Amino acid sequence: MNDTLSVSRIALLLKKYYAEDRVRVFSLLAVTFLVLAGCFIFFRLVMGFNVTAFASMVYVVVSCLFSLTLGYVSAHFFCTGQIRSRRIAMLTTPVSTAERFLAAIVVSLFGVTLMFGVAFVLADLVQTLVTGGASLFSDAELMTDIYNKMKMVFGNDFSPLRFGVESLTTGALLYNAYFLLCGLTFDRHPFLIGLLIFVAADAVLGRVAMQIVNPDIDLATLATTQPDRLPELLPHYLGRLMNVTRIMHIVATVTLYVLVFFRIRRSQLR
Amino acid sequence: MIEIKNFTYGYGKTGRCVFSDFDFRFEPGCVYGLLGENGVGKSTLLHAMMGLLRPRAGAIRFGGTDVCERRPSVLSDCYIVPEEYDLPRISLSDYVRINAPFYPKFSRSDFERYLAGFELPAALNLKSLSMGQKKKVVMCFALATNASLLLMDEPTNGLDILSKSLFRKVMAQGMNESRTIVISTHQVRDVENMLDRVVILGRQGILFDRTVDEAARHLRFGIGAPDAIFAAPSLQGLATISRGDGVTDSAVNIELLFCAVQADARKINDCFTNQR
Predict the structure, then answer these.
(1) pLDDT tens track of chain B, all 276 residues?
(2) What is the rounded CA–CA span in Å between residue B176 and residue B196?
(3) What range does the domain containing B267 cover?
(4) How many structural domains comprise chain B?
(5) What is the domain partition of chain A in residue ranges?
């Protein structure tokens, strides 16, 4: 018997989760849907379609939602804080820690992605009904316009797939792994402590990233001494900064997930 | 089969040690009765054997594998029936369909046989069951997994008088040469005819560990025996334990034996080594 990773056992665990905790699964999907639909409808009806604002909103909302659902589902699979009898039943189910962890990620990814699509379509429908305006999906010209605007924001190689992957690798997964680790490490006020450490680490890492990109350029000094050169240097500087921070994000994400995995494996035993 | 070596465990980082350098070995083909006062660690030991607790020192090995590794191959060959069980609100057939594939040796026909043994119908909805009925379902499932190690924590709690009798019958059907069953209980009368070996835990470790056959030969249970090494009042008179001759069998009263061991374990254990 393969003791580490078996796809069939993950499938069985997911089936068990769905069959035995159907109310919990649907509640999770409903909350995810309501949050996303609320944000999308607000965005479409009140703010108008501002692509940059939309992208920022997607990053923040999807990151938070993914973190929350993964935390919630992981707590179920690893039985942190559950009643004793249920904890015994879940933890003695013959699946490995890696399989539990992957099952939690699959549920969260599937749930958030599915609800993202449903909420997006609903927001579009609401806009069409309320304003009587053209739908995003029925108006090909408007769709092309949005796609071009996205390219302006994210570069010429923009594609929806890349956008999705980047939003996960540079945002949601990092925050998720980080706050999961805090939740598993600190018994009291894990999110407050996590937030404080995050702000401090972000400031330090931001400074490190700037030094890696170009230690010779001090933008603050440059802005006061040579303001005319700023428009010429800024795009180049920011481009390099983005590349460095992206690499740092990916390395940090992988490292944090490895730490979360070991921490969670240890914490399930008392 | 399952070997406990230098097992040390306490709740919390600095809490009292429930077990300290505890050694024991459970052999296959045997039904163990795990007895002890409240708080000596019977349930803790069962949970540790299932890999639910991390020892401060030592290890518990099942077939040579540390149970703390929580490998699916080990978990699928062990099953614990906890004292309280929370079943999902689904039908019994769905429960079996979802959970049976995790246990490669699960037998549906055995499961139906055990259900019939408990006089339970196959078409049940788990949400409408009482605690005792839930326990019976879990015990049927546990036996049908054909796991080599079956741990039961207070299995007769919540069962009515008829069910206790059926329990003994079902357990007898489920026992085989390759299986180890460990029953932790305070209700010794419910299980005394099923046990092969009695293990009595105390705060300093194991106070008594003998087969029921040995106890029957080396101890003599009676009423008002003049040479008693232990006596306790009972409805029939003064229930006594005397030294046996090592040959003649005596009907073992496990409850009395437990009281005697709690009173003076050394005196009882001496009967097995120093024969008259």
Answers:
(1) 899 999 999 877 667 788 999 999 999 999 999 999 998 999 999 999 998 888 889 999 998 999 988 899 999 999 999 988 788 889 999 999 999 999 999 999 999 999 999 999 988 898 888 888 999 999 999 999 999 999 999 999 889 999 999 999 999 888 888 899 999 999 888 888 889 999 999 988 899 999 999 999 999 999 988 888 999 988 888 899 999 888 888 889 999 999 999 999 999 999 888 555
(2) 12
(3) 211-273
(4) 2
(5) 1-158, 160-270
B257 and B183 inside one domain:
no
Q: Which of A88, A102, A270 to mutate to test the interface with B (most CBs of B within 10 A)?
A: A88
B268 touches chain A (CB under 8 A): no
Cβ contact, residue pair B84, A86, below 8 Å: no
Q: For B140, how many CA atoms within 13 A lie in the half-sphere containing its CB? A: 27
Residues B127 and B180 occupy one common structural domain: yes
Q: Do B51 and A269 touch (CB under 8 A)?
A: yes
Q: How many helices (H) and strands (E) does chain B have?
A: 10, 13
Alpha-carbon distances of B126 from A13, A53, B113, rounded to whole Å: 20, 50, 18
**B82/B143 same-domain check:** yes
* B134 and B225 within one domain: no
Smallest Cα distance from B161 to chain A, Å: 24
Looking at the fold, whether B265 and B217 belong to one and the same domain comes out as yes
Could you give the 3-state DSSP secondary structure of residue B75? helix
The answer to whether B51 contacts chain A (CB < 8 Å) is: yes
